[in-house]
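REVIEWER CHECKLIST
Item 1: Sequence provided? yes
Item 2: Single chain? yes
Item 3: Sequence as submitted:
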Amino acid sequence: MSTDDKADNKLQDLGGKAKEKVGGATGDDELKNQGKADQGKADLKQAGEKVKDAFKH
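Item 4: Structure as written out by the authors:
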């Protein structure tokens, strides 16, 4: 997995966590759900990168 991909995935995950917290604090369920979705996307990308790495070795 490239360092850039890893960093991008981490940023997306952190952004999702921030959205989820802000949405929860403000009562904005849509923003909260977007944050959860962003975290899920980041997790899927991370898993895909790990699979790629497994086949490289």
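Item 5: Key structural point noted by reviewer: The chain has a mean pLDDT of 92.
Item 6: Recommendation: ____
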